[in-house]
Design brief:
The complex is a heterodimer of chains A (about 550) and B (about 200).
Chain A (H helix, E strand, L loop, with lengths): L21 H4 L4 H29 L10 H36 L8 H23 L15 H4 L4 H28 L12 H32 L13 H35 L6 H14 L15 H29 L8 H24 L1 H7 L3 H31 L5 H27 L14 H31 L46
Chain B lengths: L8 H32 L1 H8 L4 H26 L3 H31 L7 H5 L2 H37 L8 H26 L2
Helix pairs in contact in B: 1-6, 1-7, 2-6, 3-4, 3-7, 4-6, 6-7
Classes of the chains: A mainly alpha (about 550), B mainly alpha (about 200).
The complex binds protoporphyrin IX containing FE.
Chain lengths: ~550, ~200
């Protein structure tokens, strides 16, 4: 990266006087750590996409197409683990949180810069452990990303090492959460009151609390799996008095809040992009900030909706179902606020905005499908079918994934000082959007018809829609390639990008492009809100 | 254009407190399992609880509370700029940690000698609730023992910094955070002790 010629002015790319790889992997500058995270998670995202495409090729036609059942089981497990634990959970806080949060609150860095670097290292060590698990011992785990007992306690594949890797990644996530909460409490610039925090920062704040409060439960659950396998503790083994349901409870006490680690910052990104490209202050600032916290809080109480068919008591099912519907309220508050912001705005449909708008649509489809799953009566029919697979891809890929791509187009030029070409970006986005809907809408219909998830084979009557779905995955992949090639070509060779071409009013747009190591010449004094375009000097 | 490095004690302590919460929640998972299984197997838990060696537990409780006192006194000593006493008190804390682990080793050894350990033939032959109790016992005290080890190592690092003069009355947040961590280790034991040795 440092080989490429940067703009001559001094910036965080060149004003440290250090060069070479060590200037990156041992740097405590939040922007460099942000880019380290960014390239790492992007790499894992691409690996995950390749695995997803292979899964789809296998499902292109009934029967064995390119792989047998064991390979298929391993591939969907690794696809899920990589996408969840190595891409989307660390993705937003690690990459864009690091790049932007300190600047947006007017700070020079996070509260604990060295801890921040440690988080990245732990993330990489955890990732390396997971990768090692794929090629050693009994081979890649085949349990699904949820590691359900009793299978995960018995299978001969290399579950223990993979689980250890996830544990280390979780530790990294906890440290990031601790760092961010402290930073947001302690390092806001003068005048940066809680009511003037950009909503992306608010969403990271809520996310950081979830990281702190939920991840330790995942940690202990993973430790218990390892103990189950290595020591034979039998805590989840009915033969020895244990209860497998307890595993599911513990797992989802973390993993359901974790889906809010994935989606909240994505909502934050969308909330930044929409007002800027509608030339209008955000509608309902307070409600959006509040709904982030409400989602984080209510989202911690709904884990049981993954277990309607597991044999919980009917009372528990009803309570969890009711609570699940409550989470829909703050989510809907956000959607209504975004739409009200658009109303009578002067909308410019550039690439980041297209991603933000498609986020609203895809997230709403995924969220409404979520209500079908949240209602116990309907869930019984579609539980563990491709309907679920379609639903969560709509939310985490159509939602978070698209927001991640939007954030790349919105913010990366700020750090590189060059931008991508607009037309290929729009074409790439359109291909992804079309491909995405063919891919996953077909899956939802298949699930409604009864096709179960996690099988390499299916009944012949499911064939046409599966073929359509696979073709959709190719369109999506082609769009993604176009998008990424165009983006990175632009970042390194494209047109220069000024200090504030989008016309944003948050602090990152008030400093030079690319920012300097210290971010601000003098500690800034904030005098207006994050979406007060008039007072930020915009027409 | 480099400005003086920023120091923020309140921030450093806030970070530590947040981290301590995550540790509590980590153990919380095990306490949760204890609660659920106690409700399911009250009689087996009571029978298994009678097999525990109260003396080892009491000894370890006394050791840990003493060590917490020493750690707290070390913080006061550093504020008074008394490096020698600080080092001695920290040394005492670390010594307590070591004695705790030896005691734990002896206790585990005694249990294992009687055929009580996860997956043992004796437990497999007994009622399932007892096997659950002892698995939880080994996991909880094992994880706690690991924390004693980590806490001791952390305090050793702190002591080295005191010796080098990097921790002094003007800047002792490291020592304070180390002591906070140690109190947490103590606190968790204060819950483990009654749950496994007393109430059953
Ligand atoms: C080109 C993109 C993608 C394709 C073609 C794809 C395809 C698939 C397929 C076919 C399955 C397995 C269905 C089955 O149960 O048999 C699956 C599972 C899954 N996918 Fe994706 N996916 C893609 C992107 C993503 C992204 C971006 C994420 C998350 C950020 C994701 C997360 C998951 C998870 C968590 C599972 C569940 C794994 C399990 O059952 O344990 N996928 N995907």
């Amino acid at each position: 990266m440092s080989m490429v010629e940067r703009p001559a002015t001094s910036s965080f790319w060149n004003d440290t006087g250090k060069t070479g790889i060590a200037a990156w992997i041992f740097s405590t500058d939040h922007k460099r750590i942000g880019l380290l995270y960014f390239y790492s998670v992007l790499g894992f995202f691409l690996v995950g996409v390749l695995l997803g495409l292979l899964l789809r090729i296998e499902l292109m036609a009934p029967g064995r197409t390119i792989m047998g059942p064991q390979t298929y089981n391993a591939l969907f497990t690794v696809h899920g683990v990589v996408m969840i634990f190595l891409f989307i959970i660390p993705g937003f806080p690690g990459a864009f949180g690091n790049l932007l949060m300190p600047i947006q609150i007017g700070a020079r860095d996070v509260a604990f810069p060295r801890l921040n670097l440690l988080s990245w290292w732990l993330y990489m060590i955890g990732a390396a452990t997971i990768l090692t698990a794929l090629f050693t011992g009994g081979g890649p785990p085949d349990t699904g990303w949820t590691f359900y007992v009793p299978f995960s306690a018995r299978t001969g594949t290399n579950v223990s090492l993979a689980v250890l890797g996830v544990f280390i990644v979780g530790f990294s996530s906890i440290l990031t959460g601790v760092n961010f909460v402290t930073t947001i409490h302690r390092l806001r610039a003068e005048g940066m009151t809680w009511g003037r925090l950009p909503l992306f920062v608010w969403s990271l704040y809520a996310t950081a609390w979830v990281q702190i409060l939920a991840t330790p439960i995942l940690g202990i659950t993973l430790v218990l799996i390892i103990a189950e396998r290595l020591l034979g503790t039998g805590l989840f083994d009915p033969g020895r008095g244990g209860d497998p349901l307890m595993y599911q409870h513990l797992f989802w006490i973390y993993s359901h809040p974790a889906v809010y680690i994935m989606i909240l910052p994505a909502m934050g990104v969308v909330t930044e992009i929409i007002p800027v490209f509608s030339r209008k202050p955000i509608f309902g600032y307070k409600m959006i900030a509040f709904s982030s916290l409400a989602i984080a809080a209510a989202g911690s109480l709904v884990w049981g909706h993954h277990m309607y068919t597991s044999g919980m008591s009917d009372n528990a099912v009803l309570v969890f179902s009711f609570l699940t519907f409550i989470v829909a309220i703050p989510s809907a508050i956000k959607v209504f606020n975004w739409v009200s912001t658009l109303y009578k705005g002067s909308i410019s449909l550039e690439a980041p905005m297209l991603f933000a708008l498609s986020f609203i649509l895809l997230f709403s489809i995924g969220g409404l499908a979520g209500l079908i799953l949240g209602a116990a009566a309907t869930d019984i029919h579609v539980h563990d079918t491709h309907f679920v697979v379609g639903h969560f891809h709509y939310v985490i890929f159509g939602g978070s994934g698209f927001a991640f791509l939007g954030a790349m187009h919105y913010w990366l030029p700020k750090f590189y000082g060059r931008r991508y070409a607009e037309k290929p970006a729009v074409v790439g986005w359109a291909m992804m959007f079309v491909g995405f809907n063919i891919l996953y809408f077909s899956m939802m219909v298949l699930g409604m018809k009864g096709m179960p998830r996690r099988y390499y084979d299916y009944l012949p009557e499911f064939a046409p829609l599966n073929l359509a779905s696979t073709i959709g995955s190719w369109i999506l992949a082609a769009g993604l390639v176009l998008l990424l090639v165009n983006l990175f070509r632009g970042l390194f060779r494209g047109e220069p990008f000024g200090n504030n071409p989008w016309g944003g009013a948050t602090l990152e747009w008030a400093i030079p492009t690319p920012p300097s190591t210290e971010n601000f010449e003098q500690d800034p004094v904030v005098t207006h809100g994050p979406y007060d375009f008039k007072r930020a000097g915009m027409p | 254009m480099s400005r003086p490095p920023h120091r923020d004690y309140a921030g450093a302590k806030l970070g530590m407190w947040l981290f301590l919460f995550t540790e509590l929640i980590l153990f919380g998972g095990l306490f949760l399992l204890y609660a659920v299984y106690l409700a399911r197997y009250p009689h087996e838990f009571a029978a298994a609880g009678r097999e525990m060696h109260l003396a080892f537990g009491v000894a370890n409780t006394v050791i840990l509370i003493t060590s917490s006192l020493l750690a707290a006194m070390a913080v006061t000593a550093v504020q008074r700029d008394d490096r020698r006493t600080t080092l001695a008190l920290l040394g005492g804390t670390i010594l307590c940690a070591a004695i705790f682990l030896v005691d734990k080793y002896l206790e585990w050894g005694a249990e294992i000698g009687r055929g009580i350990y996860p997956d043992s033939p004796r437990l497999a032959a007994g009622p399932p609730g007892e096997s659950v109790f002892f698995s939880l016992y080994y996991l909880t005290t094992g994880l706690h023992g690991l924390h004693v080890l980590i806490g001791g190592a952390l305090l050793a690092v702190v002591a080295a910094r005191v010796k080098r003069g990097a921790i002094h009355p003007g800047d002792y947040v490291w020592l304070e955070n180390g002591a906070l961590y140690w109190h947490l280790v103590d606190l968790i034991w204060i819950f483990i002790f009654p749950l496994y040795y007393l109430v059953l």
